[in-house]
Amino acid sequence: MGLLVENKNIVIPGDIIAEGMDYLPGENAFREGENLISSRIGLVSVDGRAIKIIPLSGTYRPRAGDRIICKVIDVTYSGWRVDTNTAYSAMLSMSEATSSYIERGSDLTKIFGIGDYILAKITNVTGQNLIDITLKGLGLHKLHPGRVIEISPVKVPRVIGKQGSMVTMIKNATETQITVGQNGLIWLRGRDPEKELIAVEAIRKIERDAHKQGLTDTMQAFLKEKVGDFNTTSLSDYEGGDQNE
Amino acid sequence: MSREDGRANNHLREITAKVGIIKNAKGSAFFKIGKTAAYAAVYGPRELHPKFLQNPKTGVLRCYYSMMPFSGVGERIRPGPNRRAKEISLVTEKALLPVVDLSDYPNAVVDVFIEVPQADAGTRCAGICAAAMALADAGLRMKDIPVSIACGLVNGEVVADLTYNEEASEGAVDLPICILPRTGEITLLQMDGKISKEKLMEAIELGKKVSHDLAQNLRNALLEKYIDLDNNHNKEDTK
User: Fold this and answer.
1) What is the CATH number of the domain that holds A11?
2) pTM for the predicted model, two decimal places
3) Is the model's pLDDT at A241 over the cut of 50?
């Protein structure tokens, strides 16, 4: 009876987490008779009576309010179709894209062409996973030429860090503009291409070591070794897209 | 009578299982039992085209099984889909579908590619084991990790995990079976040969018995990818 695994243990689908009716299934867990069972690979998180599984892998699931990096894949009469790095593309309508006047029948590729990247905000997600996005909001814009890399979406919070501390540190150290999208796409542009590559390397390292303790210290040491001393305290001059609320 | 390789009737061949070996895939796994090996790679959920294949109620699971040209013991195998590969793709899909929950991904598709580089009987079972691990690795919602093993009749005796020579011997019966270890439910049951009702039940029971060992192997492989994670996850640092 009761809990069969410890808090923060790793479970796989089908593992019995708890027996009896004392606990309630939360996210990524379900009840089968008397047993509470995990349905994804992840860490057990016990919160009072509720048990949820924090996934260790998986794709990005769109949520309203998230800021994501999208790629324009088609231009239509009334707007743009963008790839959201999920199984579903989103439609960006003209009115959500810009507040300036667009003449009837004008060439929309002059605003965004196919292959352009934009930083957009999800305004609504329907039950069928239809995504509405907007470019109206603080810091939302078309991304300038740079480098876009993809990381596992479950690692995004680690790359950003507490109140954006991790990404700010990388920006400071490498003098690179970095924008992190919740969907796992990251845009970078550095003054110095060499330093831009160091920033990419740093992000890849965070992705690899996301589960390890003391990651901030490890990264600070890593960046110091690569670029020498840098300002670790002040806010970045290289805000670029500024992705963190 | 003892078996060709000296195993007991309920013994499996040596098992190697690894997870996360194909970087570009969302989830991947390698499974080897004796000389039979299988890779599985999961791509998706992604957009499904042509559109008429989409299901607005749930995501679609698609499996592709393929043997590599010189994987068998006989002549070169012509690569690409053939009658046998299509059948195995279909039964793999049917074996996995009851555990995979794709209701979060309406109109989308999850593709599973299974490649067999080396074969010594039981390839569909090895393929299902690899695919099950790869699906879990991809972070998809699943009820259980299904395991699959071939049981059968060799020289009148019920045995587990047949080799090619055993399978090809006279009067042999091959019985691939896929089991959900927690509940004992069967999601795949095929048979090649003639068998009495009693022996058939005996073979299925043997399959259920060895499935627990097998399940432990798959479980360990999945955990191994993250094992140093245990109790190390520092939640404070995340946003």
Assistant:
1) 2.40.50.100
2) 0.90
3) no
